[in-house]
Design a protein that fits this description.
Length: 197
């Protein structure tokens, strides 16, 4: 039973990654057509993106494909896979809504695009960084879906490195561009968890 539950968890994780790509791809193509007017890319940001890619894509993909590191496996539980599936569905919903609201303002790196606007609708009405909210939900979902200590921790660590290396720089950039309008927005919203943080 545990082995078949583990397979279901792996399948759901793969479907989640495919959904992530399907959601992101058209927005990435569209964003390339909009001129960048301010680029704040940095080494810490590249490290954060690399850590997230490693922890939330590369390490779990190797595990799903090969079972390595098998020594860190623990018995898969149906309730854990169900929680992981719910977290992944929630992550994809937030991820899609975030991209839809951002439209041409979206960028994978810290950039300001031509005619950039401050978005305060949809998930942005509740948190300033719902994209990170979706990544946090994905990392938690990964920890429940894939019954391996290394893979579960890799996603959480990858998310944490990205978040803590980038979020302060992102907020400084938004303050530089939008000034008091962004300050007021900060006063009425939380960072990634509504009403909490």
């Amino acid at each position: 039973m545990s082995a078949s539950v583990a397979v279901v968890g792996k399948i759901i994780w793969v479907l989640g990654v495919v959904a992530w790509y399907v959601i992101r791809y058209p927005h990435a193509r569209r964003a390339k057509r909009v001129r960048v007017v301010s680029d704040r890319r940095s080494l810490p940001e590249a490290i954060g993106l690399g850590a997230a890619l490693l922890g939330m894509s590369v390490i779990p993909a190797i595990y799903v494909a090969t079972g390595i590191p098998e020594s860190a496996d623990y018995p898969a539980r149906a309730w854990a896979v169900a929680i992981g599936a719910i977290l992944y569905i929630a992550a994809m919903w937030v991820f899609r809504r975030t991209h839809k609201e951002l439209g041409k303002n979206w960028s994978i790196t810290l950039e300001i695009r031509d005619n950039h606007k401050l978005i305060c609708n949809g998930p942005y009405a509740h948190v300033r960084h719902p994209m990170y909210t979706s990544f946090m939900l994905m990392a938690l979902g990964q920890a429940f879906l894939l019954s391996n200590w290394v893979v579960g921790l890799a996603g959480l660590i990858g998310f944490a490195v990205l978040f803590f290396l980038r979020v302060d720089k992102e907020e400084r950039m938004m303050l530089d561009v939008f000034g008091q309008e962004y300050r007021a927005y900060m006063d009425r919203t939380k960072r990634i968890i509504p009403y909490i943080y």
